[in-house]
Design goal:
Blueprint lengths: L33 H22 L4 H23 L2 H14 L14
């Protein structure tokens, strides 16, 4: 039992949590200008763009290919965004009306 005499008795106290003792103390908020933060973000983006330009190991054909891919993707997005859901449903229904009855799903019933 002599081994356990050095054990601290009482509630567990965690580091950093003052509990009731430091209830009156409040942390002061650091005042940072929003303009400063925005400038840092903009400057970091510019630096990243410059690094990309310096590290760009692509051929001119690869660059042109990627530009065309982005352009086509934007065209597809704008085309899909131009129609509402209702218009899409109407177009789909018109398409189904043009199909022959061969494509209809047959009615399955055990009683008839």
């Amino acid at each position: 039992m002599a081994d356990y005499e050095a054990v601290q008795r009482g509630p567990l106290r965690l580091k950093g949590s003052g509990g009731a003792l430091s209830a009156g103390k409040r942390k002061k908020k650091k005042a940072k200008d929003k303009a400063q933060v925005m400038e840092q973000i903009v400057s970091s983006k510019k630096q990243e763009e410059e690094k990309k330009r310096g590290l760009d190991k692509r051929t001119p054909a690869q660059v042109a290919y990627e530009k065309m891919q982005e352009k086509r993707q934007m065209e597809r997005i704008l085309k899909k965004a131009s129609k509402t859901h209702k218009q899409r449903v109407e177009d789909f229904n018109r398409h189904l009306d043009t199909l022959t009855e061969h494509y209809d799903i047959p009615k399955v019933s055990w009683t008839k």
